[in-house]
Every structure is written in structure tokens, then in C-alpha cells.
Automatic annotation (TrEMBL):
This is Nucleotide-binding protein QRT04_05450. Nucleotide-binding protein. It comes from the Bacteria. It comes from Cellulomonas alba. Gene3D superfamilies: 3.30.70.860, YajQ-like, domain 2 (3.30.70.990).
Amino acid sequence: MASESSFDVVSKVDKQEVDNALNQAAKEIAQRYDFKGVGASIAWSGEKVLMVANSSERVLAVLDVFQSKLIKRGISLKSLDTGDGEPRPSGKEYRLEASIKEGLSSEVAKQLGKIVRDEGPKGVKTQIQGDELRVSAKSRDDLQAVIALLKGSDVDAALQFVNYR
């Protein structure tokens, strides 16, 4: 009897790359002419990224700079959670907090399992393990088909495929 092959679907972010993107964005904001004198800044605030400026449009411009730096560093924007995306007034300035999402939520894991059951090859099994999803099958070709299927699916998480064996 052939042994089963499997892989794990996870949603992880390289914290060092996020930190590098944030530092690059902070440098660009400090140097750009259109950010002079508007009190624009971006920095870590605990586990969240805090963006500050004197108008809501400027805060959204800071967010845009940060997003472009994340993309250049290969980090999916699906892992950046800005809440409703509206800057909040705080005294004379506007603030926007964004967090970095890691791990598959149970809803996303269930959604991925349903996609595999409905559209994937027969004989492929899924199992939710904490904040990841294990996919197993007898055939490695079936697993490759599932990876292609999940890459093409539209879910609210940045997906990586690890522990392929």
C-alpha cells in the first residue's frame, strides 16, 4: 500500500521583512517633499503599525507608501489588516492603525476545506490543525492539483504551502 503524501496550508508573515518595509516607508516619508510639515510618520505601536498625519488624506498616502514597500518585499497585502481603513481624528492629527494577520482563522480554514472537497480531486482529505490546514492524498499529483486550485481561489488570507512530503 502506498503511503499518503501531505502538505500544510499556512498563513505566515516574515516579521523581519515587515520591519524592513516599515523602516523604508519611514525613510521615504521623512524625505518626500509632499510630507514636509504635515507631521506624517509611521512606526510600530506594540504589535500594530501606527500611521499619523495632520489630515486623513495624508494618512492614506502614508498607508499607500507602506503598502508599496510591502509589495516590493514580497508580502501580500492580504496579511495587512487596517480595520475599516478610515483614519480616526485624535486631537489635531489623524491616526490609522494596521495589524499584521498571521495564521488561518477557523472560517478561512473551513472555506479552504470546502473548496478542496467541492472542486478538488477525489480522495483528498483535509484536516484543520490549529491555525493551519493539513491536506493529504495518496497521489502527489492530486496534491499538486490542490495547490494550484488553492492558489487560484479568492480567500481573505495570504497562503503558503509548507511541509510537502
